[in-house]
Amino acid sequence: MNTGKAGRRIRKTDNGFTLIELVAVLAILAVLAGITIPFGLRYVEQARRQKQLLEGRQLSMAVSMLVLEDAEWGDGSGSTLPFESIYWKKLSDEDNPLNGFYPSDWDPEGMVTEILTDASGKLHEITYQASDGSRETWTFSEEEGRFQVEVTRREP
């Protein structure tokens, strides 16, 4: 047995942690994880909403620019279609905030009959009449930090 100054015993210790020390460290890590994970999830949700809002604003600006420039709509084949023959169909992605409608070649006989903007020139409403006489109105708005598209369909 080792003895130190004044005859005290010196116990030889192992260089490890006790079970109580390990449990205390794990408890501290669990508390820290419990605090930080909700903030991380909130950040991811906020980023997703911001992305959706920006996509909606881009759609609104693109249609507004098309109206203001009296441009033609390209169908991807090299030819262009006049603005009055913008076509619409449903989006396939259910999680997309614009899940509703977007320009496509679904109904070549239909046409946009009315486009309304607010006082600042932002797109507010589009009315589309299909070849069967039905009318659909898309109302664009921003509420609670989300871009919203409300679709109203009226049968002939």
TrEMBL record:
The chain crosses the membrane at residues 20-41. It holds the Pfam family N_methyl. Signal peptide: none annotated. SUPFAM superfamilies: Pili subunits. InterPro entries: N_methyl_site, Pilin-like. It comes from the Bacteria. Keywords: Membrane, Transmembrane, Transmembrane helix. NCBIfam families: IV_pilin_GFxxxE. This is Type II secretion system protein. It comes from Candidatus Caccovicinus merdipullorum. The lineage of its organism: Bacteria, Bacillati, Bacillota, Clostridia, Eubacteriales.
